[in-house]
Amino acid sequence: MSEAVEPVIRKIGIIGGTGKEGKGLAYRWAKAGYSISIGSRQTEKARAAAAEILNLLGPAAQVQGLANQEVAASSDLLVLTVPFSAHADTLNQLKETLRGKILIDVTVPLVPPRVTRVQMPPAGSAGQEAQQILGPDVQVVVAFQNISYEHLLDDGPVDCDVLACGGSKAVRAIVVKLIQDAGLTGWDAGPIENAVVVEGLTSILIGINKQYGVPSAGIKITGVLR
Ligand SMILES: NC(=O)c1ccc[n+]([C@@H]2O[C@H](COP(=O)([O-])OP(=O)(O)OC[C@H]3O[C@@H](n4cnc5c(N)ncnc54)[C@H](OP(=O)(O)O)[C@@H]3O)[C@@H](O)[C@H]2O)c1
């Protein structure tokens, strides 16, 4: 029996990549040599965000700005960085184009104004909502929910680990490699049902930021040698 061959990821597309978290991830992966497409509802806004990253990294970096739909069609792997209020609509619009691809969902289901309280959607988590909308043809992995954008456009070490859950074990290994290539420590955190913990932790971290007057509290997995 032939073994499934996992895709080689070269082109990463970031849907809603013009925002704070998306631009930070674009910067980190472009710096690592990936070809990055930043997506937006407005092509001009995407081009401006790409120009900002190229300004930081120099013209040899591979970063372009396109409409979300074009990004979804032309990338090997997609990353979703939109507010939760736009999560379901954005996925429904891109559903057909995302067939057969991997999606890293970064969305946190925050419900303003009470963002320090965990409030999960009926599907259980944003990641499970994405998997329900996209169906079994798309492997959804949640990751980066606990990394503040403040760390990402900065080259320094990040004092927060990244938990990745959802998809198959092989797909999570691909995502953990992308996390490492972004200069962060990543962990296989199991199936998509565990997304409730990863997404929920963000509200706890925002609450700690407020209570202790810090910009970006994080989490670390301890007790594992590797
Ligand atoms: N900021 C952080 O530190 C952080 C950390 C971890 C996780 N997250 C999560 O990552 C996601 C993005 O966070 P962010 O801070 O980058 O958000 P953001 O800057 O507020 O928004 C990101 C992008 O989403 C798009 N967008 C906004 N409203 C939309 C709508 N109604 N329909 C379609 N697209 C829309 C916009 O792109 P266009 O206008 O160009 O289309 C915007 O630039 C959120 O779910 C957040 O909870 C954020």
Structural descriptors:
alpha/beta; 40% helix; six-stranded parallel β-sheet; two-stranded parallel ribbon; binds NADP nicotinamide-adenine-dinucleotide phosphate; 15% strand; 226 residues
Strand arrangement across the biggest beta sheet: 3-2-1-4-5-6
What is the CA–CA distance across the termini? 32 Å
**Could you say which structural class the secondary elements and strand pairing correspond to?**
alpha/beta
**Kindly state the mean pLDDT as a whole number?**
95
List cofactors, ions and other ligands: NADP nicotinamide-adenine-dinucleotide phosphate
Number of strands: 8
Could you tell me the strand content as a percent range?
15-25%
Structure description:
The protein is built from 8 helices and 8 strands, in the order E-H-E-H-E-H-E-H-E-H-E-H-E-H-E-H. Helix 3 packs parallel to helix 4. The radius of gyration is 16 Å and the shape is globular. It starts with 10 loop residues before the first strand and ends in a 14-residue tail after the last helix. The longest helix is centred in the last third of the chain and has 18 residues, at 195-212. With 226 residues, the chain is α/β, with parallel strands linked by helices. Strand 7, helix 7 (169-181) and strand 8 form a beta-alpha-beta unit. The protein has helices at residues 20-31, 43-57, 68-74, 87-98, 126-134, 149-152, 169-181, 195-212, and strands at 11-15, 35-40, 63-67, 77-80, 102-105, 139-142, 162-164, 186-188. It has a 6-stranded parallel β-sheet with strand order 3-2-1-4-5-6, with helices on both faces. Bound molecules: NADP nicotinamide-adenine-dinucleotide phosphate. NADP nicotinamide-adenine-dinucleotide phosphate binds next to helix 1.
